[in-house]
Amino acid sequence: MVRGMRGRVRGFFEGLVVIAIILVLIQTFLEDVALIAGWSWDVRKILLVTGFGFDLFFTLEFLIRFFASALRRQASEYLFHRKGWIDFLASLPLLLFNSGPLMAAVFLGGGTLGGVGGVFNILKVAKAIRIARILRLLRVLKVFKRIKNTESVMAQRHVAMITTTAVTITVLTLFLLSVLQPLLQYSPGSAEVLSHAETELLQRYRGESNRQLADALPTLLIIKENENTLYSRYENSYYRSMYGPTDYRYRHIGRYTFFLSLKPLLSDQAMKSLSFFLLIILMVLVFLLYYGPHFALTVSDPVHVMRRGFAETGYNLEVEIPARYRNDDVYRLAALYNREYLPLKERIKLKERRLHSDLRLDTITGIFDDEE
Amino acid sequence: MSSETEKAAGFVRHLLENPALRNQTPLQKEEQLLAFLELNGRALFPTLSSNRFFPGKNWPDIRSLLCSELFKITDSALQGYLKRIVVEQIEMSFAAFLGVPKVSPEEMKTELLQLSNRVVHTANGRRALTGSFNALAYRLVEKYIDQIFQTRNYIRFEIEKVQRLKMSKEELKNMVKVSLLLRPAVYLIRGIAPEASGVYRKQTGSLQANIAERARESIAKGLPHFPEPVIRSGVESNISFQSNSQITATARLTLLFSNLAHDYKPDMQVDRGAVSPEKSWFSVARRNFRYMGYDIKMVDELYKIAAEQGW
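The joint structure predicted for all components is written out below.
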C-alpha cells in the first residue's frame, strides 16, 4: 500500500513536471513576443515573474532529484546517464544569470542589473533544453507511441540522444557566441555602449533644439538638466505603462542627463532569441516526427522481428527488406536470418520434434485462483 | 461423471478459452494444449496433484486424465465441423470428370465422413489431420486455386496438361478438398510407421511408394464410390516429390496446403517490419523443398501469389 501511494505521488510529480515544461516553453515564447509586439510593461512583468517562478521550480526539482540520487549513491548515474545535466542546465544557470537578475532589476530598479541579465539573455534559449526532457516523458504517452512508431526502447534512446546532442550543441554555440562577441569587441547593439554618432550628438547638445535632437536620435526619451525635465517624448502615464526598469538606459554628459530607450535593441535581441528558439523546437520536432520513425522502421523493427524469431519456437516470419536499404548492416543480417536461420530452424524443429504452445504458464495461473 | 473427470474437464475448458487460442480450429487448440502440458508438466504437477485437484496421482495419470477430457471436448466440436465441411463445403460433382459414370453425392459424403471419423479416432491420423482440416476450415484451397487459375502458370499446366484434369476451377477445388481429407487416411493402415504420435508430427513426405500403393488399395476398398485418381492424390501427398517425380499435381498441392495450414493463424498480428505469414512460409519452404519433398516450381508460384496478394 505504501509502495502504491509512493508510486502515485511520483506519478503526480512527474505529471506536474511535464505540465511545467510545456508551460515554460509557452512562457519563453511569449516573453520574446511581448518585446517584439510592444506589449505593456504590466503584461511583461507578469511574464518575467512567471519565468522566475518556473526557473525556481525547476531548480528545486533538480536539487531534490540530485540529492535524492546522492543519498542512494547514484549522483553520477543521475547526472550523466539519466540526463541530470540537462535538468541542471535548464534550471540553476537560468535562475542565477537570467531570471534572477531580471527580477532584481524589476523590483530593485536599475538598468545596470538589467544589463547584466541582458548579457546572459541568450541563456533563455537554454530553456529549450527542457524539450529534451519531454523525450523521456513522452514515452509514457500513448498518443506519442501510436503516432511515432517508437515503442522500442532502443529507438527512443537513439532519438533522445541525437536530439539532445543537436540541441545542446546549438545552445552552447549560441552561448559561446554571446560571450565571445564583447571579448572580440564586436558589439552590434550592446546595452552599455552607445554608438560614436549617438555620443557626438549628445555631446553637442547645449540646451536648445530639443526637437531636432529628438528627431536625430529616435531612442531619446527624456532630457533632464539636474532635476528639471527639458524634453520628454511621451507623457508620464505612457512611460509608466510601457517602460520597465530594463527598457531604458541613461547617460550623464555635463549637467544634462539623457534617457534613451532600449526597446529597439531589446526587440532585435528578442527576435533573434525567438528565431533560435523556434529553430530548436523545429529541430526537435523533425527528429521526433521524421528521424524517430525512420530509425524505428529501419533499425529497431527488423531487430525486433529477428529477436522474436530467435526467442520463440513458433515465430517464423521473415524480415521485410526494402530494396533501397538492402546494403545496410541490419538488413544484410536480416537477409542471412531469412535465408539461413529460418529454414534451418524449421528443419531442426521437425527433426528434433520441438514443441511449441501459444499458451503461457503465467497467463493461466488465474485458473488456480478461481478454483479456490 | 466423477468429480475428477469434472475437474479435468473444467480445467481443460478453461485452457481452451484462453485468448491466445482464439479463432483456432479444434484440432489446433488440441495440439496447443497437448504441447502446453508436455512443456509445463513439471511446473503444473505440484498444483494439479494437490488436494484441490487430483491428490495422490502421478503426472502421467493426471496427464492421461486431462488428455482424455481434451479429446472428448475436441471430438464433440470436430463432429459438427467435419459434417459442415463435407456436407456443405464439398461438392462431389468432380467425380464425373474422373470417369465415374454415375456420381452418388450422398453416398460419397457418407463414406468420406465415416473415413474421417475413423481417422479422428486414430492417434497418428488425428495429428496428421490437423493440417488438412485447417486448410479446409480456413478456406485456403479456394483462395489459392482462384489465383492459380488466374495466373495460368506452372501449376495450371501441370494440372491440365500433365495430370490431364479436364475440369473447372470449382471442380478442382472440390477434388483437392477431398484429397486433403484422404491424406491422413494412410495412418489407418496397419504397418505404417507411427511418424506422428502424441503431439509430435512429421510432415515431410516420407511414405515409400510400395506402402503408399498398399494404403491406396486399402482405402479404396472403404470408398467404393470414389474415383481412383482422387484416392491416389490423397495417398501420394504423403510421398516426397524428390523421390518420385511422377506424383500428381493435386497430390503435390495437397501436401503444400496441408503443411501451410498446419500452423496457420487467421488473425495473426504481423509485426511491423515483418513479411506477411504465408509469404514467409513459402519463402522458407522454397529453401527446405528437398527436405520437405515439395515441388520447388509449385512453391515458387505459390510464393509469388502470396507476395502479390499480400497474404
